[in-house]
Design brief:
It is a single chain. With about 325 residues, this protein is mainly α. It has a domain of about 100 residues. It contains 14 helices and 2 strands. It has a two-stranded parallel sheet. α9 runs antiparallel to α10, α10 runs antiparallel to α11 and α12 runs antiparallel to α14.
Length: about 325
């Protein structure tokens, strides 16, 4: 086996294991995507019903601070979605700068790979892989921030309930959460408080917050507040009950996570078993894979291996994912 072939094999194996690991490290607990989408669409309909633009007032002020060229770059195809992802991950970077730096870095890595291997497929794969790495990182940061937000939400609801009972108006209760609690919930409640103070309708302000924080718990809280504002009732009591329900949901999720840990461990074993057997056989019988190394179709075999590993990881992911 030539040194170039060894590097190609190691690179492809690394790519396969990395992509498989990204599938498995994603949260194995969650709400049904269909249910979340329906609830989110219901609240987004409020924005259109009130005739307001879906653009946040704060986001509009941010765009006005940019120069004409930067504003144009921020509206390029894909940039609004990237900006939304950056906001959901809690990052304040400009979308076009983030995209430009990612593409330049990927182009640099791809150039090095081409100079070393002169393989267009491997070079293209390296470029695509390095390009999507920042997106994967952003999504992990988004999930981490979302988990932290949902963990803080019950405490925030209890704080708002106590403030309502002492006579504070609803918007001031949101300000208390923004000043007394830590990120990310303080930032999101603070932005929503500012939106309302700038004249945005409460329903629309919550719909915009859900766009930044796509949390089912937040959707449930927002729906309860909107209904209470339309029909009346004891909002403090409603918030306390929602807080109790969310705490119970988190306890159930932690319980399921503990029970599914065995399945996740088994998944890692199954994914690394082919690689472990390959390494063991290569040490015990170095010539065992010689026909594969010398075959003109050796790269095809590696691509098939990569695809099967990816499909296996995706399949296992579906099995161990539990809606809760």
């Amino acid at each position: 086996m030539t040194s170039d072939m060894t590097l190609v094999f190691v690179g492809l194996v690394f790519l396969t294991v990395f992509m498989a690991s990204q599938i498995l490290v994603l949260p194995t607990l969650g709400t049904s995507r269909t249910d979340s989408r329906k609830l989110k669409q219901r609240l987004e309909g409020i924005v259109h019903a009130h005739g307001d633009s879906e653009t946040s007032i704060i986001k509009a002020k941010y765009l006005k601070r940019l120069g004409p060229i930067e504003r144009t770059l921020e509206y390029l195809p894909g940039m609004p979605a990237l900006k939304t992802l950056l906001e959901q991950a809690g990052k304040q970077h400009k979308a076009y700068r983030f995209a430009l730096i990612s593409l330049l870095f990927a182009a640099g890595i791809a150039t090095v790979v081409w100079l070393y291997f002169h393989d267009p497929i491997f070079t293209s794969g390296a470029f695509v892989f390095v390009t999507i790495l920042p997106i994967i990182w952003l999504k992990k940061q988004k999930n981490k921030r979302l988990d932290k937000f949902e963990e803080q939400l019950p405490e925030a609801l209890q704080m708002m309930s106590r403030a309502l009972q002492t006579g504070y108006p609803f918007t001031e209760c949101m300000k208390i959460v923004a000043t007394e609690m830590s990120e990310p919930i303080s930032v999101e409640f603070g932005m929503t408080y500012e939106e309302i103070n700038y004249g945005r309708d409460v329903e629309v302000a919550f719909a915009l917050m859900i766009e930044r924080v796509p949390s089912l718990s937040l959707i449930a809280m927002s729906t309860a507040i909107i209904i209470q504002r339309e029909t009346g009732g004891n909002l403090a009591e409603v918030l306390l009950k929602i807080s109790a329900v969310l705490n119970g949901r988190f306890k159930l999720q932690r319980r399921i996570k503990t029970l599914s840990a065995d399945g996740i461990f088994s998944a890692w074993i199954l994914l690394f078993l082919p690689l472990g057997l390959f390494g063991l056989l290569s040490l015990m019988a170095p010539d065992y894979f010689k026909p594969v190394y010398e075959s003109p179709d050796r790269l095809m075999y590696l691509y098939i291996f990569m695809g099967l590993e990816f499909v296996a990881a995706l399949w296992i992911r579906v099995i161990i994912t539990i809606d809760a």
